[in-house]
Amino acid sequence: MDAIAIHRRAFLRQSSLLLAGSALASADALRAAETADPLVRIGLATDLHYADKPPAGARHYRETLSKFAEAAERFQREKVDCIVELGDIIDAADAPDVEEGYLQRIAKEFAAVHDRRYYVVGNHCVDTLTKAEFLEIVGQESCHQSFDLKGYHWVVLDACFRGDGEPYGRKNFQWTDANVPAAELDWLKADLARTPHKTVVFIHQRIDVEGLHSVKNAAEVRKVLEGSGKVLAVLQGHFHRNDYREVGGIHYCTLAAMVEGSGEENNAYALLDILPGHGMRIAGFRKQKGYEWPQ
Length: 295
Ligand SMILES: [Zn+2]
Known about the structure:
- By secondary structure, the chain is α/β, with parallel strands linked by helices.
- The protein has two domains: about 1-35; about 40-295, Purple Acid Phosphatase, chain A, domain 2 (4-Layer Sandwich).
- The protein is about 30% helix and about 20% strand.
- It contains seven helices and twelve strands.
- Strands 3-2-1-10-11-12 form a six-stranded mixed sheet. A six-stranded mixed sheet has the order 4-5-6-7-9-8, with helices on one face.
- Helix 7 (about 220-230) links the parallel strand 6 (about 200-205) and strand 7.
- Helix 3 (about 65-75) runs parallel beside helix 4 and helix 4 (about 95-115) packs parallel to helix 5 (about 130-140).
- Zinc ion (ZN) binds near residues 47, 49, 88 and 122.
């Protein structure tokens, strides 16, 4: 598989050289050849809800392992710079030790794909576990963080807080009561002010609309993002279905859940590419839609 990918890249590079030297080369063809190699490529998956238990409704918990194996092969073949999981990697076990076992199992699969990986915390991640227990198993220091990668800035937000500011953990919350607390908003504002780079944000619950699947103070979060003038896009999960809208000049993309539906045709995962000039492309696989956003 690697050989095919390398061959394809080499072919595209060669084509681009040929096109550059040809009077027949159209601007479109040249652009297509140039954008074949993105500046940054990230592997994305959301709402895996992994658990070793029988299906419930449309959710096929055990099948997440084989579905993720397909995504993992693609991420490796396409040489992603990192992988980002957009939340709800596990479901909601009755007991913490059982849940820890499920999380260890699926986190092991992620660890085999890439050294660099980021986990957005979803309501299900901390339904049975505490945030500290979740973080320890996935090997991450905080539920909200930012990092730089190849000239871009990336922010992971945590909306798993109740309206009274208490962090979710051990079945102490209603999933519709999602909030980004004031302290995290202050951190976000300072973080965005500091970075010289264009930025992409990851969050589990939606901040582009009002509704059951949305962060209650979504408008406040959007104000900070828009005010920075640096945010290109926000990637969200939680909704389990594809959705996209543009608000205030920022692309908000909600990704399809991996857990929904049986069989490989119901898998869902994506590659996020940043293209020269800050354009973005989402290559969607199986049930995941694809998008292209020129800047
Ligand atoms: Zn979910």
